[in-house]
Amino acid sequence: MTARFFVSTHKGLFSFAKKEAGWQTERVSFLGDAVSQALYEPRSGTLYAALGLGHFGVKLRRSRDLGDTWEELAAPVFPKEPEGHVESLPDGKPWPWRVERVWALEAGGSLGELWCGTIGGAKIGSAAALSYRPSIPCACTRLTPAE
Amino acid sequence: MPHVVFTSAVQRHVDCPPEAVEGATVRAALDVYFKRHAEARAYVLDEQGVLRQHVVVFVDGAQVQDRTGLDQAVSPSAEIYVMQALSGG
Fold it and tell me: Which of A33, A112, B4, B27 could cross-link to A145 by cystine, CB 3.0-4.6 Å?
């Protein structure tokens, strides 16, 4: 079994594998695009990557062949902002109600389950849909195998 | 029917070919387009249904000002052009 690790960078996702000559760059995915998080889920052999595409928002991709090919998954989103709702961040700016970055990816308890922490870290909720708690600067979602 | 066109910067990430769609407003035309090309929606609109902060839409060369409602009327021969916002100095 080949040992490898993945490095998420502002300019792509880099995969390194241990060969006879030592660690070598094996593959580059999303060259030029910001990858905020990556997660290899060994039970299913699935590699996940969260992108921040700047103009076009946060995206979530999945690869079943270690990065040779990718498919798009529905990225985590906030629920619809209630009309008239006003809430500020600690710095006084309005709460965005928009996912700005995936900060954490964690494998869930069941095969194929994935948790995304979108603001403030990997605080994990229990709802299948994106959970939002005004008192905790965090939003999380769970992706089931069907998704 | 209005024609919806995406800049190559969007097409690099998601399938969004130019297409003619039914629709009397920008919103209506984009809704029809995104029913056909569902993955393209999140590249243009955020989860609140608003045009992404750094995306702009032009109708026959004039920038759409109502970024939330997108209620601007479009003629049957209109070109709706979607691109990333650009700035510089």
Answer: A112
